[in-house]
Each structure stands twice: as C-alpha cells, then as structure tokens.
Amino acid sequence: MKLFFVLFLSFIFTNANLFSQGEGNNWYFGNYAGLTFNTSPPSVLTNGLLRTSEGCASVSSKDGALVFYTDGSTVYDANHNIMPNGTGLYGNNSSTQSSVVCPKPGTFNYGLRRFDSYYIVTIDVAGGSRGVGYTEVDMTLNGGLGDIVTTKKNVHLFGTTTIEGANVVKHSNGCDYWIIGKEVGNNTFKVYLITSSGVSTTPVISNQGAVSTATWGSIKVSPNNKLVSFNSNAIGTQVFDFDNSTGALTLKFSDPQLSYSSEFSPDNNVLYVTHLPLPNIWQYDLTAANNTGFLASKLLVGVTANTAGGYKMCGVQLAPDGKIYCSLTGQTRLGAIENPNVLGMGCTYNDNAVSIAGINSSNGASMFTILGLPAFPAFFIFPNEVQYESANYSVNQYFCNSDSITFRISDTNSV
Question: Counting C-beta atoms within 10 Å of the first and last residue's C-beta, which end of the chain has fewer, N or C?
C-alpha cells in the first residue's frame, strides 16, 4: 500500500511538470518577427506588432498561451491590441534589454495556469534619463486581457543613465523574486526583493566587479538562479555567484574583451558571449577553478556569414527546446547553438537554425530580426523542480503552490 501511494503521487506531480515550461514559449521581436515553441521545431508567428531595434519581452501561461508582450514602452495583449494604459512605459526599444517580465507572487490562477498580476521591469536606453523601474499589469481587468495599474506605472527604482540591462531571479524560497540591476559610474549592483506585498524600496547592495559607464550591455541569469552574467561595451564580461537567499553578488570570473550579450547553458556550466561588431560567438567553461582557467577555456565556437550592416552576431537567448538562439541583424533567420551543454566544438553552431521569413498580413511588412531577442528570466525557460528522493519524503527546500514537484522512488522493493 505504501508503494502504491508513492507511485500515485509520482503520477500526479510528474504530469503537472509536463506543463511547466510554457511561459517562455511565444517570442515577438525585431521587425514584426515572431516564433512559437508550442511546436517542435518552432513555428513562425506572423501576427506580432512589434518594431523594435533591440529590447523586448513577452510572457505566456504555463500551457503556452500568450498573455502579453512589449518593447518596453508599449504593451500588447494576447489579441495584439495595445493594452489599456499600455503606452508610455519607461523602457526604450533601443535598450539591449528594454524590459523583462516577472510574476507577482501570490497571484497564480490555477484555472488559467498563469498569474493574475505581473511586473514589467523597464530599462531606458544608455543615454536616457529614466533609469530602471517597473510597471504592474493586472490580468483580471479588461475581460482577462489585462490593464496597466496606473498607480503602479513607471515606478522608478534607481538611476538615470543605464547600462541597458536588468533581469529577474527566483528567490531560494521558491515563491518570491529578485530584480537585479547595475548602477552607472561605480561597481554597485542593486537587488530588489519582490513578494506578494510588492517590490521593496530598499535594495540589497553589492559592490563587486569593475566600474561601468552608461553603455549597451545585458544581465543574464543561469537556470539554477545561482549565477549572473553582466556584459558591457565598457568593461567586457563578468560572472558573479548569486546568493538567491540574500540577494548578494560575488565576482567569480571576468574577461575584459568588450561584449554585448551572453547566455547560460541549461546545465549552468557553460557561458556563451557575443559582441555586436563581430561575427563571433565564444564559449567559456564555468566549472573552471579560477579566472585563469576561465580565460583559458575561451573558445570561438561559431562565426556567422551575416554581412548586413555594421553589426553581425547580436543578442543570444536560451529557448524552451534547449538551444541558444542568436540574433543576426537584418536577416530572416536565426542562428543557434544546438548543444549548449557540450564544451568544445561539439556544441555546434548552426548559422541557419530557423527561418523567420514571412509576411505580416496586417501591414505587409517583411519580418526580420534587428539586434535583440526577447529577454526572459531563466525560470520562464527552465523552471527549477523540487525533487523528493528520500524514503520518508522529507522536504529539502521550500516551494510555492505554482511550482512543479517530481517524486522519484529510490527503493523499488515492495514493502
């Protein structure tokens, strides 16, 4: 009877996990470009309305149904209409990461398998004056298509000029989140806690790494929420250990070669980096013992044949299919690292991984990418699972009611 009970729980929670990765399934970016990972291989979306040179973000339900998308200044609902009060947000579509979406804790809707409230973290362009802030979206309004909460629109967090990057990390308690941003003119990172009560006004401060000026750059987070990469056209690439219990960052690795975008492998052990003017994508080993080993592991693993404009290999983003896709400016295709967990040339760069060619029927515009791909928190792409493996089912970490849980049997002897 005891064995049957364990098998029953395993069936329930394992099947729940099958629907856990849909939040990053729909991508809208570039010049009316779009992809959905609700199919395998991904399919072209021709209904998007974004025209963004760089930054953008989107969110879907856990079942992969589009919720909304944005270029950081205008928000479009699931029907591709501008959301009420959804213009004039303080992101900028010429910012590397103009925006990133985060759920509001405590608002998960079981029936719709999405949250009833989200925050859009916005990042102004480097030469702008609005810094980093956030706007709240209430999905219970406008017939379930969402509305901007006007009293929580363009709430300023910090800064005026920016490094064009910020991101969101899951808290170790499995329920709350952190916003990670970088100040200009110093080496200060500011990390803000998000709970069911809202966004904190007092950040956790970490003075780590080099001093950065206002320039393009990005902030990415590993799928296990324990590593943060900061890329900058001023100081290069830095990797930090992140304590998602306290919000503190500690410098781990650095490479002074200037960079634009980066992405972590699904297994958290490999980093890929690009720099706009160059056609290259480099790989680094994150298991290196020290910075000397990190730099020694640097390997050129891909070169694009793209010759359009002054920029070649641009933004990179991990996708639900486990590949890292690469934006190729002015092209109707994306490149991809096919096997990002593999160190060395076996990671396989494909310069023509997926076509985004198509015609948007509403405006007749050809679809192509510019510089950026949608910015996603890593937990939208690869959510952490809470796994129970001991015979007495003891819990070794906190989890929220919207998280996936997998039970595994370590002893299959009948009892």
Answer: N
- Dist CA 2 CA 409 (whole Å): 12
Q: Which helix (H) or strand (E) holds 12?
A: helix 2-17
Q: What percent of the chain has pLDDT over 70?
A: 86
DSSP string, 365-379: PBPB--S------HH
Residue 19: CB atoms within 10 Å? 13
Of 308, 302, 255, 311, give the one whose Cα is nearest residue 278: 311
- CA distances for 274 relative to 143, 248, 307, angstroms: 42, 26, 16
Q: β-strand 248-255 against 132-138: which pairing, if any?
A: unpaired
For residue 327, the one-letter residue type is S
Write out the H or E segment, with its range, that includes residue 119: strand 117-123
pTM, to two decimals: 0.89
Distance separating alpha carbons of residues 251 and 228, to the nearest angstrom: 9
Band (pLDDT 50/70/90 cuts) for residue 28 is very high
Output Rg (C-alpha) for the chain, integer angstroms: 21
Task: List Cβ neighbours of 158 (8 Å cut-off, separation of 6 or more).
Answer: 131, 132, 181, 183, 190, 203
- What the block records as the tokens of 54 is 């760089």
Residue type, 202: T
Biggest CA pair distance of the chain: 68
Structure tokens at 48: 């998007």
- CA distances 371 to 46, 95, 260, 314, Å, are 19, 10, 10, 5
> What pLDDT does 359 receive?
60
Q: Can you say whether residue 322 is alpha, beta or left, with left for phi > 0 and alpha for psi between -120 and 50 degrees?
A: left
- Out of 53-62, 253-262, 392-401, pick the least confident: 392-401
Give the single-character DSSP code of 83. Answer: P
Alpha helices in 96-207 (DSSP H): none
